[in-house]
Amino acid sequence: MATTDNVTTGDYTYYDSAKESGSFQVCSNTNVSSFSQVFLPTLYSIVFVTGFIGNGLVLCVLVKYHQRSNVTDVCLFNLALSDLLFLISLPFWAHYAAINQWIFGNFMCHAVTALYMLGFYGSIFFMILMTLDRYAVIVHAHTTLVSKHRSVKASLALAFFMWALSFAASLPNIIFSQAKNASEGWTCKEEYPEGTSWKPFSYIELNILGLIIPLSVMVFCYSRIIPVLMTIKSQKKHKAVKLILVLVSVFFLFWMPYNIVTFLKFLRQLGYMTSCEWEQDLNMAAQWVETIAFSHCCLNPIIYAFVGEKFRTLVIRILKQWFPVCFGRCTTIISDFSERRSSMSSRSSVVSTTKIV
Q1: What is the Cα gyration radius of the chain?
Q2: Residue 155: which of 166, 146, 167, 144 has the closest Cα?
Q3: Which Gene3D superfamilies match (predicted)?
Q4: DSSP symbol at 333
Q5: Do the beta carbons of residue 319 and residue 109 sit within 8 Å?
Q6: What is the pTM assigned to this prediction?
Q7: What one-character-per-residue DSSP string does 247-278 give?
Q8: Rounded distance, CA 210 to CA 82, Å?
Q9: Position 320 pLDDT exceeds 80
C-alpha cells in the first residue's frame, strides 16, 4: 500500500531506516524492481478494469432503482464508492511501478495517496457497518431501537461518521506523503520525521484497523446470526449461512497474507530480520500479497450485491437497456427463474432470509 515502504510506492531500499538506526544494510533490490515493472502494472490493470465495472454497476443500480434508502443500501452505495476511490489510484501506482519514477508532481502524490487510503479504510469500515446492521436486524429484530435507527437520516449520519473515521485514519499517510527528487529519480512515498514513531505506528494501525477489528466484528456478529437463521424454516437459510461463511473466509484469505507481511515489516523496523535476504523476500512477497488483497474490491460487488436475486435481476435489466442485443435473452431467463423461485416460498420466509442475502 501507499502506507510505509512497500512496493506500491516504489521504496525498495530502506535507505531511510539505514540512516536512522545504522542497523540495516543498504541492499540492492534490482531484481525485485525489475520484476515489479512488469508484474504490478499488469495485475493492477486487471484489478482496475474488473473492479471498476463491478462497482460501477452497483452504483448505477442503487441510484436508478432504489427509491427509498435504508442502512443496507447506504452501506452498499458507500462500499462501492470506497472501492472506486481505491481503484482510481491504481493506474497511477501502475505507471509509477512501470517506469520506477513519479512524474505527477507533489500535489498528485498527496491526492492519489488520499484516494488510496480513503478507499481502503472506507471499504473496511463500511463492511463493518454492514455486518453490524445485519446483526442488529436479525438478532435484535424485535427491538424498537433497531428499527428507529434504520431510518434514512440515521443511515446518512452513520455513513458520514464512517467517512470521517476513514479520513482520520488516512490523515497521517496523506500528510507525510510527498514527491521527492532522490538519487534514483522522483519518488512518491511517506517521509516520516526522524526520531518519531510514526512509521511503526502506521504498521500497527494497518494491522489493527485493516484486519483485527473487522475480522473480530465479523466473527462475533455472524456467530450470533447463524443460530438465528438456522431456526427459520426456509430453504434459503442454507444459502444465507453459506454466504456468511464465504464472507468471513474470503476476507480472511485475501487480507491475512498482506497483514502478515506488514507485521514482518514492522518487526524489521524494530531491528529484527535485518539481512538483505529478508528484505528481498519481504519486498517480493509484498507484491503478491498486495495484489491478492487489492483484488478483494473486485469481489465486493459479487459478494454483497450480485448474490441477491433481486439485485441481480436489476443488474441484468440495466444491462439490457444499455446493450439490448447482448442481454435481452438473459433478462427473460432470469425473470422466469425469479418468478418460479418466488412462488415456491412464502413471503414471510423470504423477508426473514433475504435481509442477510
Answers
A1: 22
A2: 146
A3: Rhodopsin 7-helix transmembrane proteins
A4: H
A5: no
A6: 0.77
A7: HHHHHHHHHHHHHHHHHHHHHHHTTSS-SHHH
A8: 14
A9: no
